[in-house]
Design brief:
Layout: H1 2-60, E1 80-82, E2 88-91, E3 97-104, H2 110-125, E4 130-137, H3 146-158, H4 162-171, H5 182-191, H6 196-204, H7 207-221, E5 230-233, E6 236-237, E7 239-240, E8 245-246, H8 250-262, H9 269-315
Parallel strand pairs: 3-4
Antiparallel strand pairs: 1-2, 2-4, 3-5, 5-6, 7-8
Length: about 325
């Protein structure tokens, strides 16, 4: 019997040893799994921290904000004011021809419209008969943060820099969805010499939103308006063609402005000649009267000359 129990003891010992080894390997695998999970967790956390830091850095670093050549000089000596609704206006506020441009900075088709009108309108503004008002809209294009661009433009108006800044905003469309990032806008503010503190304070206020909301409501109420760009001349939306569509061709808009200027009440050639005749008539009348008065004067003079002779004779 004893001989039979010895193999059983060896088998039990071997089984126990195998179980122990299996347990050790299981524990080692668990420890390795925990280490791997820890390393993965640390890696994920490091990546998240890196992304956060990169976001903070990229959000604060300056971005390229090119200002178009001549953007400031071209508006010199032109009065810059604002309308009762707070819209930016340039040119003689009392000009007989008032042009309103409904436009959006995030609207790709608005860029060539505004740029095509710019120089011809400036030329016509200098005779004091034309003024241009920009009605700021947003949300009519694919570029992001159009509302931020419109708000920024209104704050630039506070410092008399709306028109150069508006040129820059349209120029930045080349940067796509990064066109109106906060760093780029702030770089543009500094490039135009604006007070950054005052600009930031304006951006945090509600005044720009009030102007933009008014603009949107007026655009929606404008009969025939669907989307910018659009021009209104002396209160009338400029449309044309067989379908009476809104005119978006800059040359056609300038032609309409010129027609409005030509219709101003101005004296024609006949009126000028009539005025010249009227001015000459009193002079001729005065000369005739002077001539009539001159003859009696001469007779009186002759009598006066004869009188001393009589006086002398009377005295002798």
């Amino acid at each position: 019997m004893a001989k039979e129990t010895k193999p059983e003891s060896k088998n039990q010992s071997s089984s126990t040893s195998n179980t122990a080894r299996l347990g050790d390997r299981r524990k080692e695998r668990e420890r390795e799994s925990r280490r791997n999970n820890l390393l993965i967790g640390v890696g994920v956390a490091a990546a998240l921290i890196g992304l956060i830091l990169f976001g903070i850095w990229s959000g604060n670093r300056p971005e390229e904000a090119p200002i178009p050549e001549g953007a400031t000089a071209r508006y010199e000596n032109l009065p810059v004011t604002r309308t009762r609704d707070g819209y930016p206006r340039i040119g003689n506020p009392d000009a007989p021809v008032q042009v309103l441009l409904y436009s959006s900075f995030d609207c790709e088709s608005c860029k060539p419209f505004i740029e095509g009108l710019r120089d011809p309108l400036i030329e016509r503004m200098r005779d004091l008969n034309t003024a241009v008002t920009f009605v700021p809209l947003y949300g009519y294009g694919d570029i992001t943060n159009g509302q931020g661009a419109a708000r920024a433009a209104m704050c630039a108006l506070e410092q008399g820099q709306f028109w150069p800044f508006a040129e820059a905003l349209y120029n930045w469309q080349q940067f796509g969805n990064q066109a109106f990032s906060n760093p780029r806008i702030l770089s543009g503010v500094e490039a135009l010499g604006m007070d950054r503190g005052a600009f930031t304070a304006c951006s945090l206020g509600g005044a720009p939103d009030g102007v933009i909301t008014t603009a949107r409501n007026q655009a929606r109420a404008l009969l025939g308006f669907t989307t910018p760009p659009a021009a209104v001349i002396n209160g009338v939306l400029l449309t044309g063609g067989d379908d009476n569509a809104v005119v978006t061709d800059p040359e056609a808009v300038i032609a309409a402005v010129d027609r409005a200027l030509s219709n101003l009440v101005r004296p024609d050639r006949d009126e000028l000649e009539a005025e010249a005749t009227a001015e000459a008539t009193p002079e001729a009348t005065e000369e005739a009267e002077a001539a009539i008065e001159a003859e009696p004067t001469a007779e009186v003079t002759e009598d006066a000359e004869a009188t001393p002779e009589v006086t002398i004779e009377a005295g002798s």
